[in-house]
Amino acid sequence: MLVETNMVGRCLACCAALVLILASLFPCLPWIMQRLVWYMNQPPAGQTMHIPKYPPDIHDNLVRGIPTIPVITDRRMDFLENNFTQRPGDVWIITYQKVGTTMTQYIVSLLLGNGRETGFFDLFRTCPWPEIDVGIFAMSTDALEESAITAPRPRCFKSHWPRMGFFKQIPDTSKIIYVLRDAEKVAVSYWNHIFNLFAFYWVREGDMSWDQYFDKWFHGDLQNGDYFEHVASWWEVRDKKNILILRYEDLIADKAATIHRIAAFIEAPLDETRLADILDATSKDNMRKWNEGRIDKFFISMGIMKGDHVRKDGAKATVSCTDTQKALMMDKYEALLKPMGMPFEYMFSQSVQGKP
């Protein structure tokens, strides 16, 4: 697995350098590269497409009844449900989108003995996303199966999938770390994400208003479906010994304590020297350097991405939920999550003042 993904990473970096040189000679190259990335990440013929209930259409797939990014397919879900080999000790970092996935991935990867990364896309080598079936970051089914035999340490995977399908079959020998976050922060971060990854969503400023977006997000008409239902699907099994529920706000407020919790959960050795190294590697300053990674810089220079993966200090949200939108979220919490015993502050730690 690592041999294959290392080769892909090196090839991508070399291609990025070559294209940057060519871009200085051919001004139309960014236009070409944007469309090339878009077409490379489209699903195979025959894949069912999601028909949106709320405009605009951002060209999602429909997989197992859930809207998904175009690179996730029914074909890959068939493999994961029927042929994927679970190995004892596998660690899954599961989140809805924009809930601290990258930070948690990196911490787990370091705890499992992998080295420091130099760019966001390097994490696809050490902690891949198995649901991806097509495109530049897909791992073949053969490589996934080979990793069950050859991986030298517990495998690390990321996922944005709710607890359904192949996750209903996951054995107790696998470790699941589920991260949740303040609902309004998720909505705002997801909004920025869509506009940032231009060549993956193809949404420009003016194509979708905040109110249009909120209707899509709130009603589960975007990738990974309804955020509250996603959280509920994992919260209901929170007492299982192989599941650890984390809050993004706790990770930011006391990263050292959270790293200790993760290390104890996945049974990874952690002394003070190693803790200090992980805290340094995952610091804001060091993770912002990922924005200077060759692939990241290439994507930004080509207009494939519109901004940095790791936001800089002082970067302020340009949108926020209205009082009416906050009330809708609170009503959904009251109906779905409160009866399950979830504390109010887990979903509204910052965005809503006071408790119902």
> What's the architecture in CATH terms?
3-Layer(aba) Sandwich
Secondary structure class reads alpha/beta
The global form is globular
Number of helices: 17
Radius of gyration: 20 Å
Q: Give the CATH topology.
A: Rossmann fold
Describe the structure concisely.
α1 packs parallel to α15.
Descriptive account of the structure:
The chain is an alpha/beta fold and 356 residues long. The chain has a single domain (2-347), classed as Rossmann fold (3-Layer(aba) Sandwich). Helices cover 47% and strands 7% of the residues. It has helices at residues 2-25, 29-40, 74-82, 101-111, 123-126, 141-150, 183-196, 198-201, 210-218, 227-235, 248-253, 255-266, 272-281, 284-288, 294-301, 323-337, 344-347, and strands spanning 61-63, 66-68, 91-95, 156-159, 175-180, 243-247. A hairpin with a 2-residue loop joins strand 1 and strand 2 (66-68). The longest helix has 24 residues, at 2-25.
What descriptive keywords fit this protein?
7% strand, Rossmann fold, disordered C terminus, two-stranded antiparallel sheet, 356 residues
What's the topology here?
Layout: H1 2-25, H2 29-40, E1 61-63, E2 66-68, H3 74-82, E3 91-95, H4 101-111, H5 123-126, H6 141-150, E4 156-159, E5 175-180, H7 183-196, H8 198-201, H9 210-218, H10 227-235, E6 243-247, H11 248-253, H12 255-266, H13 272-281, H14 284-288, H15 294-301, H16 323-337, H17 344-347
Parallel strand pairs: 3-4, 3-5, 5-6
Antiparallel strand pairs: 1-2
